Amino acid sequence: MELTTLWFFIVGVLLIGYFVLDGFDFGVGISLPFLGKDDTDRRLLINTIGPVWDLNETWLIVAGACLFAAFPEWYATMFSGFYLALLLILVALILRGVSFEYRHQGKGRNWTRWFDQFIFWGSVLPPLLWGVAFANLAQGLPISRMDNGGWLYEGTLLTLLNPYGLLGGLTLLLITFTHGLVFVALKTVGDMRESARALATKVGVVTIVVGAAFLIWTIVQHLESETLWAIIASSALAAVALIWGWLANFRGREGWAFTANAAAIAFALLAIFMALFPNLMHSSLDPAFSMSIEGAASSQKTLELMTWVAVFTLPLVLAYQAWTYWIFRKRLSRETVAAVAH
């Protein structure tokens, strides 16, 4: 396998890691108004992700850095084209992170209410807009070639808000919501656990229907693609994983449900990447303007150096993250949270 292709899939793996791990963080934040009956409940929900949410977000930073180093043209074109959407995501992530740290430092209900709203909307916007962005990557974008050999995005934010893009955003939003609800059930006991399981069962049905519609639409759009069978296989595995996760949650097997939801996210994103391959961006203006992997990649020496760095550092990162989750593996309860408050 050529290094350009290898790094295309490495970036994909890093993004999958981000959406799997930060995905349940988003889901927990979205669940605040649905499961948080009082301040103790809301503190319990936030504490389920308190030790790991910032670690999960580092996957996005690493993915962005690798994208910039391995495919600078892809990075430049995508970030300029998605500028406003990415700015909204950044603002949402900042408000969400600040709220985790400051909601408990004020006095009075208004203070905590405002930060709870920031957590909720800061958890809704990123998966929604990320889903819109990735769906548009799979569908194709109005990009053209410039005189200097680079690529230029000729659309606006409204160009991204097309029916297929919005369906992709809704799909990722629902998957992360379900993923977060299952994580809450996995990390809590008592009424909170049962409430999260019941809500995950209801939301899961909608997620399966919307997700199936998005994956079928993706397949239909790429019937003439060289990677059609890979798209179909990835989509089928994502659908099976979603259904498996719903059944496991329904039977009270939160661990298997969480694993299945993680697999569903991974296979759904793999379907998107296979819809892109062997390009990085499809041009809806003229296929000749599409951005190929080889045409947007860095030099061979740069990719070789990055490969050696990844070989030595990635196992350390994975080991540290696994250790963190093992240390904070215990379930939480309302009584524990209430006791800490005093």
TrEMBL record:
Cellular component terms (Gene Ontology): cytochrome complex; plasma membrane
TM regions (residue ranges): 6-32, 77-98, 118-141, 161-186, 198-220, 226-248, 255-277, 305-328
Subcellular location as annotated: Cell membrane
Membrane topology, record value: Multi-pass membrane protein
GO molecular function, one term: metal ion binding
InterPro entries documented for this protein: Cyt-d_oxidase_su2
Pfam families according to UniProt: Cyt_bd_oxida_II (PF02322)
Example of a GO biological process term: aerobic electron transport chain
Keyword terms of this UniProt record: Cell membrane, Electron transport, Heme, Iron, Membrane, Metal-binding, Transmembrane, Transmembrane helix, Transport
Stated family: Belongs to the cytochrome ubiquinol oxidase subunit 2 family.
NCBIfam families: cydB
Name this protein carries in UniProt: Cytochrome bd-I ubiquinol oxidase subunit 2 apoprotein
